[in-house]
Design brief:
Lipocalin, single chain, 176 residues, 2 domains, 8-stranded antiparallel beta sheet
Length: 176
């Protein structure tokens, strides 16, 4: 009697777990909101802004900072579905997520990456793979219907929620 009870109870408890794992094999998790807790260097509530076949892009809305020159500094996270490899240096690097510090220009629709961190695990977890990379590139102009455009649209929308709309309108008109 006890053996049958234990088997029945184990079956009932394992069935939801088996169903969840089966769904993850068919369609891996790509959540719209990711919570990374402390003591992680990149802790926060990451909000998805765009995705592609290779990765999902997230921003941390609480880490948006407006500058006086009408640009916005943000922190973004890319969660790659498959490990990425970088063979540019002397050693081969494999990483699963990337956190970047970027500057967004809403009026010119450009993105400038100022610093990148490559991490060993998904969703900005794990250890840093290498020293932070500081690219020396010019601002990247985004095209409509691109991941960069989705990011700019969301960041500028969040930024404008906390700004006086008259100021935004007058600033936009001054840049035309």
């Amino acid at each position: 009697m006890k053996k049958t009870l234990y088997i029945t109870l184990a079956t009932i408890l394992i069935t939801p777990l088996a169903g969840y794992l089966a769904l993850q094999v068919i369609d891996p998790s790509d959540p719209d909101l990711v919570y990374v807790k402390k003591p992680n260097l990149f802790s926060g509530a990451w909000q998805k802004v765009a995705y592609s076949d290779n990765f999902s892009e997230y921003i941390e809305p609480k880490k948006i900072e407006k500058n006086l020159d009408s640009t916005i500094d943000i922190v973004t996270m890319r969660n790659y579905f498959k490990p990425q490899f970088d063979d540019d240096s002397d050693k081969s690097i494999s990483y699963k997520s990337q956190v970047s510090y970027e500057t967004i220009d809403c009026f010119n629709q450009t993105v400038t990456v100022t610093k990148m961190y490559l991490l060993s695990e998904h969703f900005a977890k794990g250890s840093l793979i290498d020293e932070p990379i500081e690219p020396t590139s010019t601002p990247i102009r985004v095209n409509a219907r691109s991941i960069g455009f989705s990011k700019i649209h969301k960041v500028c929308e969040l930024s404008n929620l906390s700004t006086d709309s008259q100021y935004v309108r007058s600033s936009f008109m001054n840049n035309i």
